[in-house]
Each structure stands twice: as structure tokens, then as C-alpha cells.
Specification:
The chain is an alpha/beta fold. The chain has helices spanning 10-21, 33-40, 51-57, 93-105, 121-129, 145-150, 162-171, 184-213, 220-228, 249-262, 268-278, 280-292, 318-326, 352-356, 369-373; strands spanning 2-6, 25-29, 62-65, 76-79, 85-86, 89-90, 110-113, 132-135, 155-159, 179-182, 299-303, 332-336, 347-348, 361-364, 381-384, 400-402. The chain has an eight-stranded mixed sheet, sandwiched between helices. Helix 1 crosses helix 3 (51-57), helix 8 (184-213) packs across helix 10 (249-262) and helix 8 crosses helix 11 (268-278). It is globular, with a radius of gyration of 23 Å. The structure holds nicotinamide-adenine-dinucleotide and uridine-5'-diphosphate-glucuronic acid (UGA).
């Protein structure tokens, strides 16, 4: 098929790469000229493992453009543009602008919305443009995006036009994932309900961590392990830490709460998950600060700046929020991140060794595998904010190791 992909970020570039690898001809469009220049030169504008090789392999049938002129020839047009927070919930201006540009090129186009949009958005696009609209929400995680796209957990497709819904579901049939073919509204809601549920799971375990701190002998990691063996609960997304960040959970939980409020519905559980998450950093820093005698005049190495492992994405990063909070003390802060070097207002180390060599305190703030394997034994205090280390010298239950003993 001839497929256009509008918006070449984490979702759009991965969609373009994965569909090109299935033999489709891809026309990638982005309004960011710098991004298109980089892609034309064979450079990746984002860090996503395996993406460069997949695009290189299929280069002869992917093109990158800043204008919509080739969109007219496409069988399907995927919309993968941002849907950030707006004044009263989601801001749909990028989606509406992209769809109206598509309509200007091709009044018969079938628009496939991959961006995460609140229920009723597909209907709104349809009534504004007259185009056929298919909702095909994306469930990939950054850092594992290609793997998640190719081995999708499920394919969700919704439309008022069941023929087009079937066409899009068939496009993804190579994933062999279970399909849910439904209407636009259900497809839109499945995406929010899924993200919100995972966010609630994380806030739930973070509240359990608060409880464990008050009970001598209790360790939230062991509690989570014991819960996770029950397959009705599952062991994933039960890692206590400094909270959920990133470009999705924070904005998506806020968007669905705002959407529900506008319909007179109070999503109180999701609201609580947001507020637990919002106070997580101050809570954790307060506890750690008390344990190590405050942060003033300490040399602190923070490992990891992005919102999670295997990504360069700093959007709504909890690690970065932690660094900003630490900067309010008189601490001397050095940050090491495996892929992000361009960080303002802090000393940036080029290696883990350089970051930790002269530090009183080492804080593991992101779940990179390499932090698990690094020699972090020199600092007096090792603070495991993500529960990934197991060095057996914990003198506090959750993550604070005094290595002076
Ligand atoms: P991103 O910010 O990385 O990329 C979006 C791209 O769209 C940018 O390059 C921007 O220049 C481009 N753009 C904006 N307006 C445009 C227009 N009118 N025409 C052409 N290009 C335009 O965003 P992302 O992280 O890929 O997320 C995109 C959408 O997918 C969001 O709705 C997000 O919630 C959803 N989503 C993201 C992920 C993820 O892991 N990042 C996963 C699932 C769903
Ligand atoms: C998340 C979802 O996992 C994807 O399914 C979804 O497609 C995507 O949002 C989206 O809609 O954009 P992502 O934001 O890439 O993916 O990252 P996650 O792996 O879900 O992690 C999100 C945040 O939760 C990170 O800050 C991570 O550190 C934190 N987290 C995750 C925990 O604190 N504990 C956990 O057990 C898991």
C-alpha cells in the first residue's frame, strides 16, 4: 500500500519504519524541517533502539517531506502528531491542523488516528473535514517501541466505516495480535483506560511503599513480588519508585479526568493516582534527606535524567524533577545519563565512573540496566530510587544503603 505518516516522532517514525519493513511505500511528513533534514541524511532525531537500522534497511521505499503534497496518493494517512495538555484538558490543535491539511490534498483520504485523543475526537475530525476516520491507538513504550509495535499486545481499530476498520486491522495482521474491531469511541477510550489503569497500578504500589516505610521489616519490593505471582494482578508495573513520568501517563491521566469532568463524571481513582504521583518526589526526598542528614554541601551524583531507561526523552521526567528539587539545596550535583548529555544548569559527567568517583551520595534515578552492573561502592550513601539494585547492604528497607559500614 501507499501510506502517509504525519508527524515523525516516537510513534510516527516507528510506525513508518515497521510498515516499510512489511513492504509498504511510506511517505513521512513532518513540519519540523530540522527533523526532515536529519532523516534525509540518515541521522535519527530521537534515540530509539533499532530504529536507525530498520529505516536504513527500507530506505528505498521511505521518503521524508516537510509538505503534504504526496499525501494525495496515499491509501491510508496515519496521524501521529502531539496531543499535549491544553487549558481545559487535551489540546487538539495539531490533530485538527494535520487533518485539515490532509483534506486539502485529498478529499477521499482515509485518516487513521494513532495520536492519543479523547473520546469524540474522531467524530469531530469527521464532521470538520468530511473524511473517513479510523481510530487505531498505539500502545508502544518508548525504549522498546519497535518490539512493542511488531509484537503488539493487541490491535485496536475503531471506525464508523467497518470496511476501512477491517483494512487497517488487516494491515497489522502480521503482528498476530488479538484484534478489537469496534467504533471510534470505544477505540479512543480503550487507550485512555489502559494508560490510566497502569498509572493507577504505579501509584498504588508507591502508596504501599509509604506504608512499608512505617513497618519494621517490610520491603515493598518483596510485597510486590509476592503480589505479582497472582496472574489476576501480574508482576508488571508494580515497581515502586519516584513515580510515573514521560510524555504520556501524566498528560493522558489529566486529559481523561478533564474529559470526564466535562461530562459530569468524577474519575476519583485516576485523580488520586495523579495526586500520589505529584507528591512522590517531595515525599521521597524528605525521607532520604532525613536519613542522610540533609543534602546541603553534599556531592550528589544522579544517574539517569530521562523519564525511564532506554530513551532520551526528558518530557515530564521524574528524574529531572528530582534534580530540579535537589538544586534548591546547597548540594553539588553531577548528572550522568547514558544518552542525554545536553542538560542545562547541572554538571554533566561523560561516564558513570566520572559521576560517582568523588561523590558522597549516588542516586539511581532511572532504570537503566547498566546502573545495575556499575561499581557504585565508593559513595557513602547509595540511594536506589527505582528499586533496581540488590547489593545486600540495605540498612533501610527501601533503597537507602549506607556503605560506610
Ligand atoms: P512527538 O512529539 O515525538 O512527535 C510528534 C511530531 O509531530 C513532531 O515531530 C512534530 O513536529 C510533528 N507535527 C506536529 N504538528 C504537525 C503537523 N501539523 N503536520 C506534520 N507534523 C506535525 O510525539 P509522540 O511521542 O510520537 O506522540 C504522538 C502521539 O502519539 C501523542 O498523541 C501521544 O500521546 C501518542 N503516543 C505516544 C507514545 C510514546 O511512547 N511516545 C505511545 C503511544 C501513543
Ligand atoms: C506508556 C505505556 O506503557 C505504553 O503502553 C503507552 O503506549 C505509552 O505510555 C503512551 O501512551 O505513550 P511509556 O510512557 O513509554 O509507555 O513508558 P512506561 O514504560 O509505561 O513508563 C512510564 C513511567 O512509569 C516511567 O516514568 C517509568 O519509570 C514509570 N514506571 C513504570 C514505574 O514507576 N513503575 C513501573 O512499574 C513501571
Amino acid at each position: 500500500m501507499k501510506i502517509s505518516v504525519i508527524g515523525l516522532g516516537y510513534v510516527g517514525l516507528v510506525t513508518a519504519a515497521v510498515l516499510s519493513d512489511q513492504g509498504h511505500n511510506i511517505n513521512g511528513v513532518d513540519v519540523d524541517e530540522n527533523k526532515i533534514r536529519m532523516l534525509e541524511e540518515g541521522r535519527m532525531p530521537i534515540y530509539e533502539p533499532g530504529l536507525d537500522n530498520l529505516i536504513e534497511k527500507n530506505r528505498d521505499h521511505i521518503s521524508f517531506n516537510t509538505d503534504y503534497s504526496n499525501v494525495g496518493e496515499s491509501d491510508l494517512v496515519f496521524v501521529c502528531v502531539p496531543t499535549p495538555d491544553g487549558e481545559n484538558g487535551i489540546d487538539l490543535k495539531y490533530v485538527m491542523a494535520a487533518c485539515s491539511s490532509i483534506r486539502d490534498c485529498n478529499q477521499q483520504a482515509t485518516v487513521v488516528i494513532k495520536s492519543t485523543v479523547t473520546p469524540g475526537t474522531a467524530a469531530k475530525v469527521r464532521s470538520a473535514t468530511g473524511l473517513t476516520v479510523v481510530s487505531n491507538p498505539e500502545f508502544l513504550r518508548e525504549g522498546y517501541a519497535i518490539e512493542d509495535s511488531v509484537n503488539a499486545s493487541r490491535i485496536v481499530v475503531g471506525s464508523h466505516d467497518q470496511g476501512k476498520a477491517r483494512l487497517v486491522a488487516d494491515l497489522w495482521s502480521f503482528t498476530k495480535a488479538p484484534e478489537v474491531v469496534t467504533n471510534n469511541e470505544n477505540a479512543e477510550l480503550i487507550k485512555y483506560a489502559s494508560n490510566a489503569f497502569l498509572a493507577v497500578k504505579i501509584s498504588f504500589i508507591n502508596e504501599m511503599a509509604n506504608l512499608c516505610e512505617t513497618i519494621p521489616g517490610a520491603d515493598v519490593n518483596i510485597v510486590a513480588e509476592g503480589m505479582g505471582f497472582d496472574d489476576r494482578i501480574g508482576n508488571r508495573f508494580l515497581k515502586a519508585g519516584i513515580g510515573f513520568g514521560g510524555s504520556c501517563f501524566p498528560k493522558d491521566t489529566r486529559a481523561i479526568v478533564a474529559d470526564a469532568t466535562s461530562r459530569g463524571v468524577d474519575l476519583s481513582i485516576i485523580k488520586k493516582a495523579i495526586s500520589v504521583n505529584d507528591t512522590r518526589i517531595t515525599h521521597v526526598l524528605d525521607r532520604v534527606g532525613k536519613r542522610i542528614g540533609g543534602f546541603n554541601n553534599k556531592k550528589i551524583a544522579v544517574l539517569g535524567a530521562s523519564f525511564k531507561e532506554n530513551t532520551d526523552d526528558l518530557r515530564f521526567s521524574k528524574s529531572w524533577e528530582l534534580i530540579e528539587e535537589l538544586k534548591k539545596s546547597q548540594a553539588e550535583i553531577t548528572v550522568y545519563d547514558p544518552v542525554v548529555r545536553n542538560l542545562e544548569g547541572v554538571r554533566v559527567a561523560n561516564t558513570i565512573e566520572e559521576a560517582v568517583s568523588d561523590s558522597d551520595v549516588v542516586m539511581v534515578a532511572t532504570e537503566w540496566e547498566m546502573f545495575r552492573e556499575a561499581d557504585l561502592s565508593k559513595a557513602r550513601y547509595l540511594i536506589d530510587l527505582r528499586g533496581i539494585l540488590d547489593n545486600g547492604v540495605a540498612d533501610l528497607k527501601v533503597g537507602v544503603y549506607d556503605q560506610s559500614a
